[in-house]
Fold each of these.
Amino acid sequence: MEEIHEASQVSELGTDRENHNNRRMEISYMLRPILKMMKLAGEFYGDSSFLETPLRGSNYFSRIYCTSVLLGQCIIFAQAVTSIFFDGFTQTENTYFLLMFSIWYLECMGTNTICLFVLPKSQKQPSRMSKLVSSLFTKESDLRGLTKRRLSSLLAITCCAVALNSICLAALDFYRGISVARFQPWNGFLAYRLLHLVFGVFNSFAWVLPVLLFCVVCTVLSGMFENLQKKLSTQNSTSINMGSLRQEHHKLCETVALADKVFSPYLFVVISLHIPLICFNFHQLLKNSNEDNITYIITVLYWWMGLSGEVALILMFGIRVNEKVRARVVIFNKLSSMLSFSNSNCLM
């Protein structure tokens, strides 16, 4: 009998390990392409292999690369703020244009800084993101809503958004002669203009990639609660183990709390700066709608739609996870009251 019991324990451990490896592969396939793109954009320098222990080897080149990107973002932000004091108060149009770019540069610089501190996984100390990913590996999740084809489509849309934004910046500079580097005291020097265009591409990545990561993580979290809902629906009301289900729900809520620690600084920066950007872009869109500057109107319309859509995505995915958490609490309370009522009837 003892040998049979030991054999069953070994088989259960093997099954659990296999399920754990399968979950690791599924979640790694979703997160690794995004982190690799963020690494290319200078927003991530850590290990993206999702091994138990990060690969040995220095990340000095990646760190220097990310530091250079962040330094360039700081430089173009400082140039935009400086231009406000030189040319920003001469005309109202200049004021709004320079304010828009200053806020956008500040947002992208803040987003990049947060990603560099929150996301990397190192051997010395686990980051917030590494703790979240480790927690995701231990939870079962229904990931049918995020297929490989859909994830590839999202990555393609992200690259298209970066390309379109870069084209808009280049068109404004070379076709319409509108750029931060064309104001005082930079006087439109080619080196300054190219600096803004190059790091404008990096800012475009910082604008869209963290949102994609947030949406994918929220999808995984929603799938975990949907998997718990399946367990509740398949079990008989008389044989439900409320203690184990509540414990599993509590562990899922702890994972959501880890995700909140990862994304709350980013969400604070994005929401607090997206709102004035949306207002400024909408103002510019209305003010220039009757003019012949089609390039500027199309660019501002694209920015306004992109900013509004990004806020809508953040709210939609965040509210979905919040509803999943609260819905399970309501279900547990109803089940508890039903079980206590049935037990009282049995005693009667």
Amino acid sequence: MSARPVLIAAVLAAFPFLPRPAAAESGPQFRDLESQAMGRTGVASSRGANSLFLNPAALGRATGGDFGLSADMGVNGVLLDYASWAKDNYQNLDNMDSLLAHIGPIDNKWAPFTNSMIVYGNWEGIGMAALLDTHYELTVAKAVVTPVLGIGAFSDIVLTAGRGFAADDGYRFGFALKYLYRLRYDDRLVGPGDEDFYTAKQKLEKKSHGVFDQIAKIQVAGDIAETKQGAGLNLGAEKDINKAWTAGLSLLDFPTVLDQEFVRPDIDLGLSWHPEVHWIPDLENHVVVNVDWQRFLIPGTPWFKQIKAGAAFEGWIKGRQAAYVGMGLNDGYPTFGVRMGYIVYLSYVYTAEEIGTYPGQQKLSFHKIVLQADY
């Protein structure tokens, strides 16, 4: 038997004997545009420095190099409701009592704010990236006799670097080392009996300077969130079954330690079909179809949140992507994305997710605009 399948089997067999994690989730789990558009898949199809977060073995098929940066912001209906309400009631945002008297349209509606910024590069199988990935949530509600605030934060700063290796018979292996600085505040309601209520209240009552400053108050959770630092390791393997089929295995946070506590690791499996087609003349055309099995280590996770799928069409000119259209299913919800450009790209991504556990928190749709430069 080849040594490579034995190595993969040994890693999987060793998993049950690793220290059990202290955290339920490993983090915001950044994914690039292509992965988000295709239902957050890509264990067997990721590429470039972004593969450091999903399957670093993909670095083993990189030739030459590239450097880029990307920034995105998520917008949804609830956030737009807050913006519209703030425009008409901005004078009330600086006084909690006045705020409660005019809170009707946004009462107990959780407003999420998401954005990510990443600078990345790779050269001949070596990849590096610096990531800021943030997710804040805020609501203001009326209790029986007192106001309550709902606050949540889950954000990471990640510095990561890794290497991919190509081996015989179409195998690739890779690793990524990472440093994490995390802000974490589990979604919860806080009232006048909680010290965090007054910290958040003071932030909300500060004088605002324009609508954007008012919306930025959604990030109040970042001022009271718990901070943790740590380091970790992602591992990955890929196998080209033939020219059009690739299988992938990724071991994320294997291990990762934050403040002397182990984070829950993930094992993800993926299969990708990526034939070259000839639909558009003068373009290198590719179809990519992914099926991933993720999050199956989390007890109680329903099957439709474990199985993720996506399909995409790519058009390339002289080795650079010029057009991309993808769609998929993530946690049972549809996803979609489109990107156009050459060196500088403008993209749109639609995703949906469920947030929180309190009334008013529910499935939310996110419309993300992504600006990216890749050279």
